[in-house]
Structures are given as structure tokens and as C-alpha cells.
Give the backbone structure.
Amino acid sequence: MQIIKQSHGDKTREKILNAGVKLWPNVTLSSVGRELELTHAAISYHFPGDSLKSVVAEHAVTTGVSRVIVQLIAEKHPAVSTMPTGERHSHFRAV
């Protein structure tokens, strides 16, 4: 088994994404910054040019967070546009 070490930046990026999922749908630079005691600049450094909320939505889909995915489906968010119908239904049953 190969152990992959995450850099400090990778760990911070993951913490930001997980905080965003926790705070969903109230994901802003300010709300995530307060949650993690980070500045806007620190968060923006890890996601330059990206919409934080969109990146968090993608992370929620990738990690299978049904509570967020159901909301994304209702909003017809691009992050769930290719999700098969059966998988969509499984997320509704999970919440």
C-alpha cells in the first residue's frame, strides 16, 4: 500500500472544501473564513479565479454528500447535470 502525503496546501484546500459542504448553502468567502479562521486572501489563494460555491458543489458531488446533492438537483446545478437518474434518486432516499 502506497502512502501519499498531502502538502500543507492540499490539506488547507480540503479543509476549505469540507467547511463549504458543512456550511452549504451559505458558502461565501466570509462564512468559510469564519469557520476556519482564515482570511479571504487565504481562501482565494487556494481557489484563484474559481467560484468557491461551485467548487464546493463539485466537491459535494465527488464525495457523495446527499444533503447538498439534493439541493443541487433541485437547482439544476451544472455539477449534477450528468448524474444518472438512479443515482439522483438514491440521494433523495438518503436524506
Remarks:
- The two ends are 34 Å apart (CA to CA).
- Residues 8-94 form one domain.
- DSSP finds six helices and no strands in the chain.
- Helices lie at 8-23, 29-36, 40-46, 52-63, 66-75, 85-94.
